[in-house]
Amino acid sequence: MKGAPGLFNGKGHSDKDQEKLIEELYRQIGKLKVELDWLKKKSGLTP
Fold first, then answer.
1. Among candidates 2, 26, 24, 23, which has minimal Cα distance to 12?
2. What is the pTM assigned to this prediction?
3. Could you report the per-residue pLDDT of 4-37, keeping only the tens digit for each?
4. Residues 6 or more apart in contact with residue 40 via CB below 8 angstroms
């Protein structure tokens, strides 16, 4: 909780840490998109 304000003003993370975080988030987004597309296909929601 002590470091929470620093998360929002850009302090507390090096550029390398932010790059790793962004890379991980994009990976998670990609995985979730694949899962969502698969679920849509299986449920018949995609024409």
1. 2
2. 0.61
3. 776 676 656 677 888 999 999 999 999 999 999 9
4. 46
